[in-house]
Amino acid sequence: MTRTLQVELGDRSYPIAIGPDVLAHIDTRGQRCLVVSNDTIAPLHLQTLLAQLPDETATCILPDGEAHKTLESAAVILDALADGGFHRDALIIALGGGVIGDLAGFAAAVYHRGIDFIQIPTTLLSMVDSSVGGKTGVNHPAGKNLIGAFHQPRQVLADLSLLATLPDREYAAGLAEVVKYAALGDLDFLAWLEVRVAALRARDHAVLSETVERCCAAKARIVAADEREQGQRALLNLGHTFGHAIETASGYGTVLHGEAVAIGMVMAADLSHRLGWTSQHDVTRLSKLLQALDLPTRSPDIPVDQFIALMQRDKKVLNNRLRLVLLKPLGQALITSDVPPEPLRETLLAAT
Ligand SMILES: NC(=O)c1ccc[n+]([C@@H]2O[C@H](COP(=O)([O-])OP(=O)(O)OC[C@H]3O[C@@H](n4cnc5c(N)ncnc54)[C@H](O)[C@@H]3O)[C@@H](O)[C@H]2O)c1
Ligand SMILES: O=C(O)C(=O)C[C@@H](O)[C@H](O)[C@H](O)COP(=O)(O)O
Ligand SMILES: [Zn+2]
User: Fold this and answer.
1) What is the CA(233)–ligand 2 centre distance, in A?
2) Where does the record locate the signal sequence feature (predicted)?
């Protein structure tokens, strides 16, 4: 069964199709296509996609890894477009996880000042989060996603059968962003996940497809209300100010994005508890769910001053003040710039 949702953004609205055989619904409108993927995914899934596309479709295969989510990789895509004589009516198709989706989307945002693109997510994380919402970009040694653009895809096609080849660690990383939606705004969903841990770990198809639909619906609602993160979209950043600092400090790709988000959410919950906003019971509840889903909840050892300096590079910083997404209580996230330094230091010291 195919589930279809819509991201409502006026004349830039687009559908998200979830289910088996959704690749057959790719909407290329006769445009010249460039498929962007990487050297892990292409041998597994590129031929299946190409079977749905015109014979003259070009490909750009990048090296795999978060360490390659760079301006240099974006330039490789832009070179493929320019050298291939692609015009403004070209279409980029991203076949991959969040790294490929963010890179290909960024190239689509800037080539000829913006061309069309389609997201075909191949990881759980990209199905529930990164393929939806139009945040595109690359990392910088100073911080995650420091360079980027908002550029919405034309279509998102989430074919759950592609997940059959996804390694367990990557699958678990995707579950962290699933738990994020529950923790930030949906306690019923949190309880629903808690009683389905075994099914989630077993990649039960029915549970997975409902999970992807619930997450995409939540993200679509938030993005439709606040496309450019002027307000409530920042709640999708729960755990990310801590998490991005962990990813940068450890070297991109050492701690996976989803793993860093899992650790970061527990840190956000811990700080919320220190501020009197969340009970210890709920901090433990969140932590236990993440652990049951095979996710880490303790931070690598990063000196506190370095951790704070990295957090200060976060894109939510305003007037030099940190703005953090915290829980008041679990299931109800808020963004605050009122973060006293002492409890924050205590959270950082307690996190390892
Ligand atoms: N734009 C957004 O809104 C948004 C949201 C969340 C995360 N992100 C970004 O997404 C990135 C993380 O994405 P990710 O977790 O998908 O990681 P990823 O793109 O690095 O993919 C994870 C790994 O799995 C491999 N892989 C992907 N699909 C596979 C498949 N079907 N079978 C076998 N192997 C497969 C990849 O080659 C890679 O090695 C981070 O850069 C993060 O910042 C962006
Ligand atoms: O779509 C959003 O908005 C998110 O914040 C989703 C996050 O899961 C994602 O990791 C995003 O890339 C983080 O955004 P950033 O603006 O902090 O780089
Ligand atoms: Zn994320």
Assistant:
1) 9
2) none
